[in-house]
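Section: Multi-chain targets

For targets with more than one molecule, the full set of components is provided together so that the structure can be written out for the assembly as a whole rather than chain by chain. Components appear in the order listed by the source. The example entry contains two components.
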Amino acid sequence: MAVHQFGFVERVDTLEMAEEGATFLLNSPYGPEEVWDKIPRSLQQQIIDKKIKFFVIDAYKVAKEVQLGARINTIMQTGFFALSGVLPEDEAIAKIKEYIRKTYGKRGEAIVRMNFAAVDAALSHMFEVEVPAEATSTIEQPPVVPAEAPDFVQNVTAEIMAGRGDLLPVSALPDDGTYPTGTTQWEKRNIALDIPVWETDLCIQCGKCVNVCPHSVIRAKVVPEDALAGAPETFKYADARWREFPDQQYVLQVAPEDCTACKLCVEVCPAKDKSNVSRKALNMASQIPIREQECENWDFFLNLPEVPRYGTGDGGAALKFNKVKNVQLLQPLFEFSGACAGCGETPYIRTMTQLFGDRALIANATGCSSIYGGNLPTTPYTVDANGRGPTWSNSLFEDNAEFGLGMRLAIDKQMEYAQELVGRLRDRLGHAFAGEILMADQSDEAGIAAQRERVAKLKEMLKDDTDLEARDLVALADVLVHKSVWIVGGDGWAYDIGYGGLDHVLASGRNVNVLVLDTEVYSNTGGQASKATGLGAVAKFAAGGKPTPKKDLGLLAMGYGYVYVAQIAMGSNDNQTIKAILEAESYDGPSLIIAYSHCIAHGIDIAKGLDQQDRAVKSGHWPLYRYDPRRKKEGKNPFQIDSKAPSLPLKEYIYNENRYRILQRMKPEAAAEFLKEAERLIAAKWKLYTQMAQDDSDAAAKSNGKPGPKKKPALPGAKGDGAAATPVGATPAAPPPASKPIAKGKGKLPPGFG
Amino acid sequence: MAVHQFGFVERVDTLEMAEEGATFLLNSPYGPEEVWDKIPRSLQQQIIDKKIKFFVIDAYKVAKEVQLGARINTIMQTGFFALSGVLPEDEAIAKIKEYIRKTYGKRGEAIVRMNFAAVDAALSHMFEVEVPAEATSTIEQPPVVPAEAPDFVQNVTAEIMAGRGDLLPVSALPDDGTYPTGTTQWEKRNIALDIPVWETDLCIQCGKCVNVCPHSVIRAKVVPEDALAGAPETFKYADARWREFPDQQYVLQVAPEDCTACKLCVEVCPAKDKSNVSRKALNMASQIPIREQECENWDFFLNLPEVPRYGTGDGGAALKFNKVKNVQLLQPLFEFSGACAGCGETPYIRTMTQLFGDRALIANATGCSSIYGGNLPTTPYTVDANGRGPTWSNSLFEDNAEFGLGMRLAIDKQMEYAQELVGRLRDRLGHAFAGEILMADQSDEAGIAAQRERVAKLKEMLKDDTDLEARDLVALADVLVHKSVWIVGGDGWAYDIGYGGLDHVLASGRNVNVLVLDTEVYSNTGGQASKATGLGAVAKFAAGGKPTPKKDLGLLAMGYGYVYVAQIAMGSNDNQTIKAILEAESYDGPSLIIAYSHCIAHGIDIAKGLDQQDRAVKSGHWPLYRYDPRRKKEGKNPFQIDSKAPSLPLKEYIYNENRYRILQRMKPEAAAEFLKEAERLIAAKWKLYTQMAQDDSDAAAKSNGKPGPKKKPALPGAKGDGAAATPVGATPAAPPPASKPIAKGKGKLPPGFG
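Its structure, encoded as tokens over all components, is:
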């Protein structure tokens, strides 16, 4: 029996199935002398009772020594074969090395040699533990979830987590398939050996670490000093550097048991100690020694007040959530997902939930995001203190855009009926109040909060009303508060399998927000080429390098002229990312955001994921831009490029990734041809984009100077956005559908309303 | 019992279910005095035996008188109600008129009044027939199909045609679902009251009538004079006006029983009698009087020799099938379909089968073309004298492009294996002969014919060889002759339901030809809006006029840079149509042809369908163009516009169609806004297209002047097609996949081939 993660023995009955006299190999940070006291008492007892031979190996230490990072598979495999006696040791070692060459040969001789070294080092680091006669540990295996977890989590989620899901009666499961959210918080995985530790003196409070954290485990708040009364001894804070929050304290806290040690936060941290540049405002440190204290700090942090989402800070100025520094202070409603350590997708989702999570509906395409987004038994989507959070569902790979459009249509229809009922019941509600509800400006957080209050009041007024229309209105009233519909998926969905539907939904003109997490490959199914895969990248179905270039999804969408389109890369410009997400959501029509998402499938050092994003942009492979149809009404060119002209040689981007490097190694001539062609294509694309951004802004201004007549039935988009406002490279601008229910902003009263 | 088509009584046992004393109303061109002798003896006997009351009405005559054209439904309905006594006559008439107003009200008061007139006229044109005591007719109900029809047609097809399909045993049906083609020829429908008659003296032999005929019922041949020996007395011909065929005769013949009387041929005929401009080289004449003679002529015509598809005409010059005048002489392998009279789609399909039908595989999307393309029991696809013709199948609405790609991949794989076998068996075949097979130039008809001969020879050489590889090669050898893969469907498929797959297949770079029959609406399912529907057109789901403009499918496809794209409209430029079809097929990569197809769903006078196509082009709604990636290698701009700048006011195109006119009538202000916006969009599109066609030809020429190195593994498309060759408005050009089996043109010998 081999246990590859020490954390497992703390939580799982790992030896349950072991026979008497079995051999037990544990990957342990504790040596043979120390380990006995670090394992739970129940495990000790089993080892004694079953007369188990107990070995330890510090595989992570070995891996580090032979430069394999955190890759322990070869080491544990070697130990396992050495102990199991399945083959004679020499033969086993020879076979393992043969397999290493076969598996890693393509990745180069260095990788092969590192793994050979790991094999050799493994045996000298494996030790037998002398098993005492008595179980003396003071450590007890904790309950699967703590006592404060809600009933459903105790009774259902925890049972599935413990591997006893098959023992649950069907009646224990939700009968309509709706699962409670916010359950990843009960699943403390403890998979990080090291976690980031904050240095208050160096921190400039920029929030970049919070912004990039794929698992939402590093968080910030600004709180009044008196909120810190009773803080644990090791709890850290610093004077907050916000004009809007004078005399308050800035708190940055890591969830130690949820961190995955990806190091993105440390890599992105711009604050260095001038006297010791290897020391930053965040540095990795061993988790185990500080786990207990940081758990306590995390709990304290969670109970601190959130910053107000609207209105004024203490200093009197309103805090705008339009840049990283401020957005970091918003509660994420997506946390502790099962995504890979260092995932390049999840930070975009988290940002979206910080901004709109309390009113979001999410249709999720099949792919990584549907796995980490709703991976039974737990879900990372969660709720705020008021119980509001994203509603999430996954339909099929091929129909996600349609699925999300359905959410939009359902809400619109419900809203239409609710508005009609408010009109009909205006005598009961009072004309002024009913008018306020119907005319509510919900274009910002304050407006939404005010509408929520109105809806609460309306429900209260009608709560005892037995009239059928009043009952209907009470049931529907929540829909009178603006909802934000998001359609989320990867490139396999958006460029390939779901593209037909995506195109149809964008063409529909409806107010939906599409977020494409573009890893340029089918990440979740194992690395097949998609139409988003770049020219010459090696992927499954493109073993000789993909022979066709990346499809320009954004350009296709811009062709409609009434779709908001943005291409973003957090690692290149995080404030542009936030700007695009805000603009997309505020646009009362279809929006498409294409987000560069670095991925382990690229064959990169994941800790450098953000740097690689930046290279993608600097090389011209991934220009940042925003296309906002609203700008036409202001006489402006709708298309804006947000990144500079290509300045980094393309090879310094692509050959930083194994998916490109592998071809360079195996077929250097083909790789060189691909590189040349890709460079040519980048130059052509940059030329096209700059033409689009410059070409016709004056014409647009000209024709927009004299808007057409505005009588009904006017076409919303047809207000004099002149022909030439069309970007070169796109079909002409066109209006979204003329008749839609009031979604946001100022409403209008129904005819005859008094 | 009412029979609305006289032809039915000649072929169907219409009174089989009639009870004794029933009333029988027949739409008959023969009056009460004449009709008795014109119906089959068996029908007479039934009328007598069952004591049936027999009434006739010449509904077509009535319809013509009240200007309803061939629309007899109101007339027959009136007669039926008057005779049936379901309601008192006055009340029935009132109800019918009420219903007319409800049904046709939207189409305008004139239509309503015509129908009222039809009701009033119906009763005065209905007569009872005095039934004689004896059946005296010399007419016998003919067999369902003639005796010369093949066995399968006799035993299966004819049974289904006769309405006895449910009596067939399962064992009678093809066990793999493969049906013989060429079966519509046995289904003589006789639905035309009038058919075109040829005036040899006026005819200029342009072939436009043959080209536009939706049912391939008007055909031409050029034959040596001696072939006409034994021609029926009324058989017409004239001196052929072809340089390549001196001293030969031109024959134009109509299939009288298959014609649908759509009149497209007469309308398109450019040759007028100067002394009587209403007389053209084709004029409609009553079918019945000339049916018998023309049937005889048609049979004679069919047996005349076809023109040679390659090599020289008698005059020594090769006939090129690159314009209407010559293509008219090729045998259509698509004939007598069940498409609507005057269909705007089928002429494109017929042209394709004339050019490539003997080697075509067709994947057909669900829609009109799948219905008339494979409507059990008969299929309009047929074979030439050598038994070669299109292979046709229909999968689903949503996967047709993928279905067709599968045909391509299967052929490519089979060809690869066949080529490999030729290489392996070269000692048996002879190195020179094997080399000829592998290196065959199949880029024209002569090359294909030569390869067919080689394949026949190869099969003959190996026919007794029991070696397994030889058996495999004999089984596969036909695939060594070039096959032409066509993916056919309507706009509902291409723009909407199948768009995701279409995009994927185009992006694949594979050699498939996509033909989109664009009626701008879901014609077959009853007129729902598709993304191809124009701005402001009224359709199902767009009752207030479609609020978004037509999607520019061609522009999206051009974005790939390696897809051949053409937009065509036969009614505007029939030679450009042929040029585009030829270019698309000859391009060794994906091709997309978007064909304007007028349709009854547009609410037009269908006889004027071609004129309406011309209006679509002249107004700028439907620019004609071709985008040929091959031109880049010649330093030319790949994009060419084939139509002139918009010259016709848009309203003279759109308001010629009821789908636009209807909104003008119901919501004139909205219609006016739509018109204005549509005009703006047309101007913008024309500007964009002209920019694309002009902008960068010099840059393209520049960079193509210095092609890159051509070593292997060179990218086929990457030979110096400069960045700026990319049309403005499209993503940069890109190469098709590098590795493909040899499909056409010069092959290459496998390595080590002696």
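Confidence is low (pLDDT under 50) at residues 697-743 of chain A.
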